[in-house]
Write a structure and sequence with these properties.
about 425 residues, TIM Barrel, 2 domains, 6-stranded parallel sheet, 14 helices
Length: about 425
């Protein structure tokens, strides 16, 4: 099964290369995979925990896996980002799938840390572990209360139950959000949707879910590989191969380019892989040793984004501080977290700059609810601008800006995005 998953991932990358590049739109929610910085700083993220069961194999005297990971991070002065679940104990009736398959822990749903052992995982059950994560300065993000995929995912998860609608997805994430606030006094600001399923069946996407909750979408740019099982027979040989799969690609990347991991987000798993082993318990130390050898600081994703919240703009740009301020309530970057300052500004992008966030969101959401279909990302903002005479009726969102409405801008020599943002009066 792991081979099928690997082939599927390679096939997806190939198809993406062959297809025309996806048209990007400005978005309040951006997919944060990496940020632009020249500093040797990166983030390490851990999905699906916390896990209050021992590592497998257990070579840590019965300590919980999450404790082992926290011990390792502490030895290196590193801080991690734990993308936690709430409780998968409600995901029944269900049964375990074939060992080694993606459904090992449940055919209809995921169960963490294992089917029948849901009470050993999640923020609802593992208060000691959650408090330790927070007390030691790590970040917690939202991986869904019940870890149910938002929409259909036929490949690998065709038998899975899914939420399907934006309201159900918002409710599920908000349930964990409230738990973390009420029990732990902690406010979550980011989410990684379960299994990266973004398309919902009611015209919305996971980006809309994030918009409603005020989250950013935490993705990753480098796969730490601890979640994939080895096909080798024999548990010792398989574990050794799995640890090597975590370490060797990182070592090779650093040998070829010592700055390779600057600004990157690394993906790991706080739990079993498909073969119910935990190579991350053994490979994480080796990965951190490599990063330390090359002078990297391992920080939380929140700390990484203090370097820069954008993928193509850093502190050296004269517009950096201004755009950091504007991003709080305006969409200034695209969904892939790039600002693309030297592209021409379009009418739709200008509308997203001028229109208040709540107006743009509410108007577009109302249109989607009426039709059940996807609406242009700029629809609400354009509607608001037209009503106020800032743009003529019939303005096309993708058309290049040919004039700027008065009252908002200083002198502008041209209409690139850089020039418009530079002239915009906050």
């Amino acid at each position: 099964m792991s081979l099928i998953v690997k082939i599927g991932k390679k096939g997806k990358r190939l198809v993406k290369k062959l297809l025309p590049e996806e048209k990007r739109h400005l978005s309040y929610t951006r997919r944060i995979e990496r940020i632009k910085t020249g500093r040797r700083i990166c983030a390490m993220t851990f999905d699906d925990g916390p896990m209050d069961l021992p590592a497998a194999p257990d070579r840590f005297e019965g300590r919980a896996l999450t404790d082992v990971l926290l011990d390792t991070l502490a030895r290196f002065g590193a801080r991690g980002t734990f993308d936690v679940v709430g409780d998968t104990g409600e995901n029944y009736p269900d049964q375990a799938g074939k060992p080694g398959s993606a459904a090992w822990g449940g055919i209809k749903f995921d169960h963490y840390p294992d089917i029948g052992k849901d009470d050993k995982g999640g923020a609802a059950h593992c208060e000691r572990l959650v408090r330790r994560i927070l007390d030691e300065g790590h970040q917690i993000t939202n991986h869904g209360y019940r870890h149910i995929i938002f929409g259909k995912k036929p490949f690998v998860y065709g038998a899975r139950e899914y939420l399907g609608g934006v309201d159900k997805a918002v409710d599920d994430l908000n349930r964990l959000h409230r738990l973390m606030e009420e029990r732990y006094g902690y406010r979550i600001t980011m989410t990684r949707p379960p299994h990266y399923v973004d398309k919902l069946q009611d015209g919305f996407t996971s980006y809309d879910v994030c918009d409603r909750l005020g989250y950013q979408y935490m993705a990753a740019s480098f796969d730490g590989a601890g979640w994939l099982p080895s096909a080798l027979s024999g548990p010792d040989a398989a574990l050794e191969a799995e640890v090597a799969a975590m370490v060797e690609p990182m070592k090779k990347a650093l040998e070829q380019d010592p700055d390779f991991f600057c600004g990157q987000i690394i993906f790991q798993k706080d739990g079993y892989n498909m073969a119910k082993r935990t190579p991350v318990a053994f490979g994480l130390e080796k990965q951190l040793e490599l990063l330390r050898e090359y002078g990297y600081q391992v920080a939380t994703v929140a700390e990484l984004m203090e370097e820069s919240p954008f993928a193509d703009l850093d502190r050296g740009d004269p517009l950096f501080e201004k755009l950091c301020r504007l991003q709080a309530d305006r969409a200034v970057a695209y969904s892939d977290n790039r600002v693309r300052l030297d592209q021409p500004m379009t009418w739709g992008e200008l509308a997203m700059l001028l229109c208040p966030k709540r107006e743009a969101m509410d108007r577009r959401w109302a249109a989607i609810r009426r039709t059940g279909k996807r609406e242009h990302p700029y629809r609400g903002a354009l509607e608001w601008c037209v009503e106020r005479g800032l743009m003529p009726r019939g303005t096309r969102p993708d058309g290049p800006v040919s004039a700027l409405p008065g009252g908002h801008f200083g002198p502008v020599e041209g209409f690139t995005r850089r020039e418009v943002y530079a002239a915009y009066q906050e």
